Amino acid sequence: MRTVIVGTSVAGVRVAQALRRNGGEDEIILAGEESHLPYDKPCLSKGMLSGALAPEKNCLLTDSAAAELGIRTALSQRAVGLDPAAAVLRTTAGRIPYDRLVIATGASARRLPWSNLPGVHSLRTRTDCEALRADLRRAARLVVVGGGFIGCEVAATARGLGLDVTIVEPETTLLPAAGPELGALAGEWHAGHGVRVRVGEAVHDIVRVGSVLAVELRGGEVLDADCVVLGVGAVPNTGWLEGSGLDIADGIACDAWGRVRGHENILAAGDVARWQDPVSGAARRIEHWTNATEQAAVVGKVLAGASEVAAHRANTYVWSDQYDRTMSFVGRRAQATRVTRFDDPRKGGVAFVGADEQGGLAFAAVVNWPRALLAVRKAINGSVPCAAVEEQFATVA
């Protein structure tokens, strides 16, 4: 039995490892378009970008570990097509027949009209990181377009390198997906470190004038920069699946075990996959590291033929390190109708807890408060009422 995993993302690597861990004896081929060995992406905007973390310390699967597990890596092979009827994956290096296929091709940075300008960067791959780091070493002024988690992390790293930094975010707060409460705090932290935070403003155009990038805001103001980072979201890498017959609208449609609808020998995991929620029946695509690893664990069990594999129910969980703070976010802020703030009286941590219309725990945002984070993660995965969670905060400090 040959299992081909396309995509050397954390989801792809973890599927291979989980298949072996659960006793699967398949021939495993792990194919990916990058030339680098698989690496962890959360570090790209922090330690890898600053240069504090060496690339060899950020490896998900070394050559020796792959050999020990019997995983054959096929790097520098970009997927260009799929023929499910013939069970053949087409790559830039040729055709790879499979008995079972796992798609873990992740997502790519959303592109804007200025993406190809010299000095304008996105950050999604190690190559992106290396190019951006080289430009930051020569730059004095950085404009970050987009104040989400990636944009804020890049801004914090750049300030640590001594650059003059401006964040431009069209919403009224930083971290808009996490809600105004955490976004307002993040704005205060960045401003306190000398970052100019421009919320409620959008970029109209970016042009290059000699060695300077002119970032024009919609109100007409122009910000001069030596370097610009676009942090405006990502899109699933499904273009190569056009014509394959797979449902690829906003990611590959899967059931709650990662099996691709209509194709019993194809599964998908990670940022590229849209899994069905076993409770609500709704399909969701979640672009976060933890979700990718949890899905991979399920797919590995399914491939290994484990009995009674529990369906995966995804809950958004993302963490971010900015300056001396670690912030974590779980759940869905948009579902909260009431939000309560709690403060750690001993160590200065902060938590926001949101209840939905039925009194359930909709979301929580936690900063520098590990015990509070543990409590809300357990609660949101166990459907604990929000009132019960709020009562716990008297004891978790």
TrEMBL record:
InterPro entries: FAD-oxidoreductase/Apoptosis, FAD/NAD-bd_sf, FAD/NAD-binding_dom, FAD/NAD-linked_Rdtase_dimer_sf, Reductase_C. It holds the Pfam family Reductase_C. Residues 317-385 form the Reductase C-terminal domain. Residues 2-296 form the FAD/NAD(P)-binding domain. One of its GO terms (molecular function) is oxidoreductase activity, acting on NAD(P)H. GO terms for cellular component: cytoplasm. Keywords: FAD, Flavoprotein, Oxidoreductase. Its cofactor is FAD. This is Pyridine nucleotide-disulfide oxidoreductase.
